[in-house]
Specification:
This protein is α+β, with helices and mostly antiparallel strands. The protein has helices at 7-35, 54-60, 64-67, 137-183, 191-215, 227-244, 264-280, 342-352; strands at 39-44, 49-52, 78-79, 98-103, 109-120, 126-135, 223-225, 247-253, 260-262, 286-298, 304-314, 356-362, 366-374. Helix 4 runs antiparallel to helix 5 (191-215), helix 6 (227-244) runs parallel beside helix 7 (264-280) and helix 7 (264-280) runs antiparallel to helix 8. Bound molecules: adenosine-5'-diphosphate and magnesium ion.
């Protein structure tokens, strides 16, 4: 024997090697598809689902077993531009990036970006379709936030322009009215008219002040500060109303609360607006609660960020679900004498501090505003 293999033996071992290579490449392809972040669904030409990857399962809330063999229509994929015909029948614009909505197993709809490609056999024949999709919920949320900030900024500019134009003539009117009052006798019956004019001028001045706080220059004077300090500073403005309405005021601060970086004047304004709303929501009394705790939240780059979470809650009338998305909009109000700027000012201030604000409300039970503010660096 020379040590070389016989012909048959050689062929067999080559076959094994080929098989192994094929198997491992199939494994690689499969593990690749499984670990991709986008959802992938493969169907036959008649839209019957033959495959879904892990990301797809997670995005849609179904398991493989629940969807394989079912029609793709299960997800009710609906294109944003209201195209009514079936997507899987479109052959002209396959593979262009599109946006739409899909139904999850739990019944909720999510926004998705998707593409549809033909699944081609080695001979180039279309044997099915490949749908690749991404969950756009977070992207949509960020877009909405940006739009909201845009609206606030342009409104701020408009407001300051108008306020400047009105303020000077108003001051003129007030001086003239005062001069008229000085010439009038004390018992003059016309004095009543003058009083009314002065009162209306004062009301307009108040309105302008609100506008100005909305249009204030954007620079922040940041200092390290304990949230308790901010709250203590505004309580005196509210104490009378809290007492008159029979509201119980409860404060809970975590014993090891870190300080936050704030522009004190602006932060006073932000919390004052929240407290005023809470008080106004409880005309017959109730409980106004403030709670502050340290929290750690992962940021976009994966690092951990320390925040102070402040929750302001009331046991007032609550906010009906259909108006919840509007409450931070400038000039949105449900109050007969409201201006509707309170929450949009608060929103703007919290954002400028690198924080977030969210609302959680139950009709007729109460409302909570949840604010996260970044912890200060000790050397500040
Ligand atoms: N704590 C709260 N309880 C119930 N409704 C609230 C509360 N805070 C805000 N709202 C709702 O949000 C709207 C907008 O509030 P805001 O911007 O402060 O304007 P305004 O107080 O002038 O109406 C209010 O008119 C009210 O409908
Ligand atoms: Mg208000």
């Amino acid at each position: 024997m020379t040590g070389s293999m016989g012909q048959a033996e050689k062929r067999e071992s080559e076959g094994v090697r080929l098989n192994q290579a094929l198997e491992s490449s199939t494994n690689i392809t499969e593990s690749l598809i499984e670990s991709i972040g986008s959802g992938i669904i493969i169907t036959e030409m008649n839209d019957t689902i033959t495959y879904i990857n892990q990301a797809g399962e997670k995005i849609l809330g179904y398991s493989k077993g629940e969807v394989i063999g079912k029609p793709f229509g299960l997800f009710g994929l609906n294109e944003k531009l209201n195209v009514s015909h079936s997507f899987l029948d479109q052959s002209d614009n396959l593979d262009t990036r599109r946006e739409g909505r899909m139904n999850r197993k739990e019944g909720n709809e999510i926004p998705v970006g998707f593409t549809i490609n033909y699944h081609l056999s080695l001979s180039g024949e279309a044997i099915g379709k490949i749908i690749i999709f991404r969950d756009l919920t977070k992207v949509y949320r960020i877009q909405e936030e940006i739009l909201k900030m845009d609206r606030l900024v342009s409104l701020g500019k408009l407001a300051s322009g108008i306020a400047h134009e009105i303020r000077n003539p108003l001051a003129g009117i007030k001086t003239t009215a005062q001069a008229l009052g000085e010439e009038m006798g004390k018992e003059d019956p016309k004095r009543e008219y003058l009083n009314r004019i002065t009162k209306e001028i004062d009301r307009l001045n108040e309105l302008l002040k609100t506008f100005f706080s909305f249009a204030k220059p954007q620079t922040l004077l940041l200092v390290p500060c304990h949230i308790k300090e901010i709250i203590n500073a505004i309580i005196p403005f509210l104490i009378k109303e809290i007492a008159d309405k029979g509201i119980r005021f409860v404060e809970t601060y975590h014993p090891k609360l870190p300080r936050i970086r704030v522009d004190k004047i602006q932060m006073h304004q932000a919390f004052l607006n929240l407290f005023l709303n809470a008080i106004q929501a409880m005309p017959g009394g109730g409980e106004l609660k403030i709670e502050a705790n340290p929290v750690v939240i992962p940021s976009l780059d994966g690092s951990m960020q320390n925040y102070v979470r402040v929750v302001v809650s009331d046991t007032g009338k609550g906010i009906p679900p259909h108006i919840l998305p509007k409450i931070f909009d400038p000039f949105f109000t449900t109050k007969p004498k409201g201006i509707g700027l309170g929450l949009s000012i608060t929103y703007q201030i919290i954002k400028k501090h690198g924080g977030t604000i969210k609302v959680d409300s139950q009709w007729e039970k109460g409302t909570s505003f949840i604010i996260n503010l970044p912890e200060t660096f000790e050397n500040l």
